[in-house]
Design goal:
With 337 residues, this protein is α/β, with parallel strands linked by helices. The protein has two domains: 3-173, Thiolase/Chalcone synthase (Peroxisomal Thiolase, Chain A, domain 1), CATH 3.40.47.10; 179-192 and 225-336, Thiolase/Chalcone synthase (Peroxisomal Thiolase, Chain A, domain 1, 3-Layer(aba) Sandwich), CATH 3.40.47. It has eleven helices and 13 strands. The strands form four sheets. Strands 1-7-6-4-5 form a five-stranded mixed sheet, with helices on both faces. A four-stranded mixed sheet has the order 8-13-12-11, with helices on both faces. Strands 2-3 form a two-stranded antiparallel ribbon. Strand 12 and strand 13 (329-336) form a beta hairpin. Helix 8 crosses helix 9. It is globular, with a radius of gyration of 19 Å. The two termini are 18 Å apart.
């Protein structure tokens, strides 16, 4: 029997900082309005012609592999989580394998949006526990900025999201009292359209439909993301609480045992609600959404890496990862560091 443990972490964000005041110059919004609703002060946006979803993932992965103390060719498998791939197909997993110059290992792409990294960790953990692989690279990377409606019409969504990438190397651990103790995954597809980007998609509106409408002068917003904000918020606080408790109870633990909670950085108000509900101090919850916005599949690995870099996670700590997002999908990871 094996466990998996996180042996290396890394993250990368573009240098281009976009503040709330910057956004107020292109849409009807302001710093107070954004901070009050989301807690976000600034985010990073890729400058066109520089980074891509894959290149950011590669940079994060290089740091994670170096910190894991292994050679890149000791990676047995790649898991890449994103909603913003470079291409419609193929996915970025194989592009990372190519750009890192890793041997011909398998590469899996995961499309679970805000829960993507948690799902990816779960997949990697099971591969390692089964004995199939020893070292699995898990990446979460997102390039949102090129696909957002940067006008007043889209401000309810566009002010929230930022670009960036995070990565982790999971390694076989023979001491089953350490590492990833359990993972817990859920979905509820009946609410799929409440947080979605409908087009282009094979089922309803494909590229030629969009082009035809544009050519005929029709306004089309189907290729911009849509979010029913209040509905998503109400579901998120419930599912976050449920899946954290599910993970704790599966390991005969309680909220008092948590040393560090790393929630998906969706909205600072959601994190604060969960913190209060579980009676956790500021030192027990790590938030960085104020600096990076919501980076979807990248948010947990970026936050986890920063928390570790700042010495907020120590050996023996109980670390809980939790996410909720489009799908709806949600999940948690319970880790003995």
């Amino acid at each position: 029997m094996y466990n998996s443990r996180i042996s290396g972490l890394g993250f990368y964000v573009p240098e281009n900082v976009v503040t709330n005041d910057d956004l107020s110059k292109v849409m009807d919004t302001n710093d107070e309005w954004i901070q009050e609703r989301t807690g976000i002060k600034e985010r990073r946006h890729v400058i066109k012609g520089t980074d891509t979803t894959t290149s950011m993932g590669v940079k994060a992965a290089q740091k994670a592999i170096e910190r894991a103390g292994i050679d890149k060719n000791e990676i047995d498998f790649i898991v890449f989580a994103t909603l913003s791939p470079d291409y419609y197909f193929p996915g970025p997993g194989v592009l990372v394998q190519r750009d890192l110059g890793i041997k011909t290992v398998g590469a899996l792409d995961i499309r679970n949006q805000c829960s993507g990294f948690v799902y990816g960790i779960s997949v990697a953990d099971q591969y390692i526990k089964s004995g199939m692989y020893k070292n699995v690279l898990v990446i979460g990377s997102e390039l949102h900025s090129h696909g957002l409606d940067m006008t007043t019409r889209g401000r309810g969504v566009s002010v929230i999201f930022g670009d960036g990438a995070g990565a982790a190397v999971l390694t076989r651990e023979e001491d089953t009292s350490k590492g990833i103790l359990s993972t817990h995954l859920h979905s509820e597809g009946q609410h799929a359209e409440e947080l979605s980007l409908i087009a282009p998609g094979m089922g309803k509106r494909w590229v030629n439909d969009i082009i035809a409408d544009v050519d005929s002068g029709k306004e089309d917003t189907s290729y911009f993301p849509y979010m029913n904000g209040q509905f998503v918020f109400k579901n998120a606080v419930v599912r976050f609480s449920e899946v954290i408790m599910e993970g704790l109870q599966a390991n005969n633990l309680g909220p008092q045992d948590i040393d560090m909670l790393i929630p998906h950085q969706a909205n600072l108000r959601i994190s604060q609600f969960i913190q209060k509900k579980f009676g956790l101090s500021d030192d027990q919850v790590f938030n960085n959404i104020m600096n990076y916005g919501n980076t979807t599949a990248a948010s947990i690995p970026i936050a986890l890496t920063e928390a570790w870099e700042q010495g907020k996670i120590k050996e023996g700590d109980l670390v809980v990862l939790a996410a909720f997002g489009s799908g709806f999908t949600w999940g948690s990871v319970i880790i003995r560091w």
